[in-house]
Amino acid sequence: MATTTVETISTRERKYHNTASAYVLPNDVVEQNRLDAQAAAIVEMIGGLPFLAPIHSMTNISKAVDVGCGTGVATVQLAAMFPSAKIYGLDISDVPDSVQQTAPKNVTWATGNVLDVDHEEPGKAHDNDQSSTVTTREIFTPGGLDYIFGRMLFLGINDWTRYFSTTARSLRSGGIIEHQDLDWRFYRVNTSECLSDKWEWHRHVVSAAEKAGLSIQAGSNAAPLMKKAGLEVISVQEFEFSFVPSSKTPNSQAMGKYVQAKLIPQYPELLSKMLGAEGIAGEKLKKLTEDALRDLASEEGVHQKYTVTIGRKP
């Protein structure tokens, strides 16, 4: 059993995205540092490369987008791989100024929500939002993208059918989409034995997520949704997103260390947001938060399933 001392940051004044998106996490320096650390841990977890799609062998990539780019880590990596291509980094808020100033010249940053793309009326902004017109006209033009990358979108996308329909329509024939995401359940190391079905706090989190339209299987459900959108699934790989390091999963050691150092301290804030939507506050919220922190450190290797799904447009 792991012992963790958690210094929470929930008492600090946090800044959040100014958006109608379902995304509930903050948008400030603390969160940006966490996202950068998470990106590095994910790369180590999946084998050392940020992208698992066969894009290294693709010589005709001229236009690609990193959806939900966050701090722009993957956007910059993609731009470096394809210096002659136009690479878009799309997020619901601006990426940090420091990233914008140092990014390769072939990167274009855009602010908007992929769910606002309207292929039927490309000149009409969704909810009078001009940014959605830009994303529709410039980024997600039908048949205009060679590669679409999305990572850890599970807290922001509340209509996965629309997401994959939009991205499928935006790919050219032969274009590739890579989706890397989490399921919400927690498992014992190296098994599919679910631990979280017994956790009361987790049941409330799942209930809140479902009420917000979020999927609790954003990773494992990607393949059938891609097929429904008319895409050919060419690869599905599963990894263990560890919350506590375990010698049984060497590639997830960095992930477990990142979670304990960067993610767990933000869990009280996340739980406050999600359980608050269930009407839970006060002593009940305090107890469930304590239960969550205990359960998530209860044994080595406790993890969520992280699935990388790659599809191709016929």
Topology overview:
Elements: H1 29-45, E1 63-67, H2 73-81, E2 86-91, H3 97-102, E3 107-111, H4 130-139, E4 145-151, H5 160-170, E5 171-182, H6 200-211, H7 222-228, E6 232-242, H8 253-263, H9 267-276, H10 282-295, E7 303-312
Element-level helix/strand string: HEHEHEHEHEHHEHHHE
Instruction: Tally the beta strands.
Output: 7
Structural class: alpha/beta
* Count of alpha and pi helical runs: 10
Features:
314 residues, alpha/beta, seven-stranded mixed sheet, 10 helices, 34% helix, globular, disordered N terminus
What does this molecule look like?
By secondary structure, the chain is an alpha/beta fold. The protein is built from ten helices and seven strands. It has a seven-stranded mixed β-sheet with strand order 3-2-1-4-5-7-6, with helices on both faces. Strand 1, helix 2 and strand 2 form a beta-alpha-beta unit. Helix 1 runs antiparallel to helix 8 and helix 5 packs across helix 7. The N terminus is likely disordered.
Précis, in short:
The protein has ten helices and seven strands. It is an alpha/beta fold and 314 residues long.
